[in-house]
Specification:
The complex is a heterodimer of chains A (164) and B (377). Chain A is α+β, with helices and mostly antiparallel strands and 164 residues long. In chain A, 32% of the residues lie in helices and 27% in strands. The longest helix of chain B has 22 residues, at 131-152. Chain B starts with a strand and ends with a strand. The chains are: A alpha+beta (164), B alpha/beta (377). At the A-B interface, strand 1, helix 2, helix 3 and helix 4 of A face strand 1, helix 1 and helix 2 of B.
Chain lengths: 164, 377
């Protein structure tokens, strides 16, 4: 049997620093059924969403909801813990709206990871340095402890770290 | 210039008449990973999974691979599937593997519907504030009430503890298993533990849940312990602890609308953990200063700020204190307990006598209290 794909999806998220205080994060989702684009603008240091745009280029839904008004509800919301719950509660529940909620989440994730990247860029290359680096990260942010396999209680990276 | 990019590709093909095979690839500036998963039709059950790293953030990341097997047996159509993957694979393995796995699973559902292997896509997952949570909470209230009436004949109510000269220490932020799906702390155990460690009272602040006054009064009578009511409501500006407010709000509400409603009934709003930040970097890295934070519109709509919360870091709590001081808003303390042993880590010391809800609301407005660390972790 030929392994021809029955479904495929590409999901691309990017973050760009427009000026000192402005980040723009976009998520483009193209799959067999849909082609959607969401772009959010975020102001530092609060990471407040100051603008949001979306475009539905292709959709398998019979009726595509008018999303522009709905999307504006997220303006003023800050990127941070709990944002997915907030956005989910503010935007509707149709299939397209749920997809948009997911994509807003991807945009926010991109913003957070862009800052994470800056931190990780300072990690030392040697083993002792790496161990100290992650140990300090966990000491500064106790929620990281046991948050994944690499930072679990049995990981060598967490040797000597007291559980919070 | 881009500061970050992430690309994900998901491909689905039909392995045979009963199995869809999905391959997910995630490549971003930090991580490179692949996951392969086989899912049966029409049950949509994960029956095989494997993954590999191509680039990772530290040399212990490969520990995540064996824990992908936690997803075996999960069914895509079951309620709470996404949360289940996030809590198991996301925590035990890696949140980024959970991300690409969920992307694969969502694509599988679409593929299954497209090929006619399933006739309807699984419905929207119930949120914690949805109908099932409501039904569970109501059932919990009934169970608590029945337990209290059944036991009342058999026990002698203890008198409430007298106020000491050091004031009354009350944990203002507690979640019970009965009404908060994220809590594993049964209410009676919370009460017992609070008494054991010497707290003078606790305030139930379950997520989007209003406890009935008669239920709480009955518990207070039975256990001879001060139990107060609050509600942690999620707004567009974050979570708020709301007191003296009876409306049962489900879903997300704009903070300014909530404020108008709470003012009408002379209630009280405390911003809960307003500076709970990010796992891998601090708010300092963003350039956020107390002065800038004080300008946030949300602080115009609250009566107090939670400055001690055991779920945030000490730096985040300190930042909250600085903001509260700068704004002249009172600071409170609460454990945000979701497990019994967390109760009382932080609390609020009131210098007024509080024996009931009315006393409590009056005390909140009079601002004669301070946040305090109470229980050693």
């Amino acid at each position: 049997m030929v392994d021809i794909l029955c479904f495929s999806r590409n999901n691309a998220t990017t973050v760009e620093q427009m000026d000192k205080d402005t980040l723009v994060s976009s998520c483009r989702l193209q799959d067999t059924l849909m082609d959607l684009l969401v772009v959010i603008q975020v102001k530092t240091p609060d990471l407040e969403i100051t603008d949001i745009q979306a475009k539905i280029s292709r959709s398998s839904e019979a009726e595509v909801p008018d999303i522009q008004t709905t999307l504006k509800k997220v303006i003023g919301v800050r990127v941070g813990p709990g944002i997915k719950k907030i956005v989910k509660g503010l935007i509707g529940k149709s299939a397209t709206e749920r997809k948009l909620v997911f994509m807003i989440g991807e945009c926010c994730n991109g913003i957070i990871l862009s800052f994470t990247k800056q931190v990780l860029n300072t990690a030392p290359d040697d083993w002792e340095g790496e161990k100290n680096f992650f140990a300090n990260m966990v000491k500064n942010s106790p929620r990281l402890y046991n948050s994944c396999a690499a930072l679990s209680s049995v990981s060598p990276l967490m040797e000597g770290i007291e559980p919070p | 210039m881009l500061t970050f990019s992430r690309n994900k590709i998901v491909s689905i093909h039909r392995k045979d008449a009963h199995i869809l095979r999905a391959r997910g690839i995630l490549e971003d500036d930090i991580y490179g990973m692949e996951v392969d998963v086989e899912i049966t039709l029409p049950d949509l059950e994960i029956v095989w999974i494997d993954g590999k790293w191509t680039r990772m953030e530290n040399r212990e990341c490969p520990r995540a691979i064996p824990f992908l097997q936690e997803a075996l047996g999960f069914r895509l159509a079951e309620e709470g599937f996404t949360q289940k993957v996030q809590k198991t694979v996301g925590r035990k393995s890696c949140r980024h593997f959970a991300n690409i796995l969920l992307e694969c699973c969502e694509a599988v559902i679409e593929a299954a519907a497209l090929t006619g292997a399933i006739t309807a896509k699984p419905g929207e997952e119930k949120t914690q504030t949805g109908e099932i949570a409501e039904e569970k909470a109501q059932t919990a209230e009934v169970a608590v009430k029945k337990g209290v009436s059944r036991d009342r004949k058999e026990t002698t109510a203890e008198p409430l503890r007298k106020v000491t000269s050091g004031g009354m220490v009350i944990d203002l932020h507690v979640h019970s298993a009965e009404a908060s799906p994220c809590s594993s702390a049964p209410l009676v155990d919370l009460i017992a533990e609070a008494k054991r460690i010497g707290l003078d009272g606790l305030c139930l602040t379950d997520h989007n849940h209003v406890w009935r006054r008669e239920t709480i009064d009955a518990l207070q009578d039975k256990y001879g312990f001060l139990i107060l009511r609050g509600n942690e409501i999620t707004t567009d500006q974050g979570d708020m602890l709301v007191f003296g407010f009876e409306e049962d709000i489900k879903g997300i509400v704009p903070l300014d609308e909530l404020r108008k409603k709470v003012l009408q009934v002379n209630g009280f709003i405390i911003a809960a953990h307003p500076f709970r930040g990010f796992l891998t970097f601090g708010i300092g890295q963003l350039g956020l200063t107390p002065e800038k934070a004080m300008a946030r519109p949300l602080f115009q709509h609250v009566d107090g700020i939670e400055v001690l919360n055991s779920k945030v870091s000490e730096k985040e709590d300190l930042f909250s204190s600085q903001v509260a001081l700068g704004l002249g808003l009172p600071g409170t303390g609460g454990s945000d307990a979701h497990e019994v042993e967390e109760i009382g880590i932080y609390a609020t010391r009131f210098f007024d006598v509080i024996t009931c809800e009315e006393d409590f609301l009056k005390a909140l407005r009079q601002k004669n209290y301070e946040p305090t660390a109470f229980r050693r972790r």
